[in-house]
Amino acid sequence: MSTTSRTDTTTDVGTFTIRPLDPIQDAELLHGWVTHPKAAFWMMQEARLHDVERAYMAIAASEYHDAFLGSLDGEPVFLMERYDPAHVELVGLYEPAPGDVGMHFLVAPADTPVHGFTRAVITAVMEHLFADPTAARVVVEPDVRNTAVHALNEAVGFVPVREIEKPEKRALLSFCTRERFERAAGVTV
């Protein structure tokens, strides 16, 4: 996948900057996020620092998978992964269409939650993905038990399609077209 260098999105909570992840420099920060109890659905609870480095070095080396770090007004606050579902994560589990792009995101744990913050993050993530004119539809596959992310996904235009069985989880396959996102978020990308 082509690595987008950096994008900025201004929201009600501030300006998000999304940049490519540096698997070595950012590993310690990510380790704290992915092993936090609130990140249980990220499935890295028992990861050691070198496990995180290794996982994100593999993503950085992949032709079909990218990782990005999102900051709010200069402070890192979320992780985003973009992947080609025809080659990663969903191979054989659905029929990919031209312009499909897969996505994962993780918001950093916060001591004081900010109302609307996670929705602002997913909006910035979706704008980043749709900034690529070849992206026609975003594909996600969160754990079926993660009802909070299902509601969030639906709020930005995702439509659940069906449950699928992945090696590590039972997932809810959902799609969001550019048009559905623009309608739901009230933006044009």
UniProtKB/TrEMBL annotation:
Pathway: Siderophore biosynthesis; mycobactin biosynthesis
Start and end residues of each Acyltransferase MbtK/IucB-like conserved domain: 19-66
Domain of life: Bacteria
Functional summary from the UniProt entry: Acyltransferase required for the direct transfer of medium- to long-chain fatty acyl moieties from a carrier protein (MbtL) on to the epsilon-amino group of lysine residue in the mycobactin core.
Name of the molecule in the record: Lysine N-acyltransferase MbtK
Source organism per UniProt: Streptomyces mirabilis
Upper taxonomic lineage: Bacteria, Bacillati, Actinomycetota, Actinomycetes, Kitasatosporales
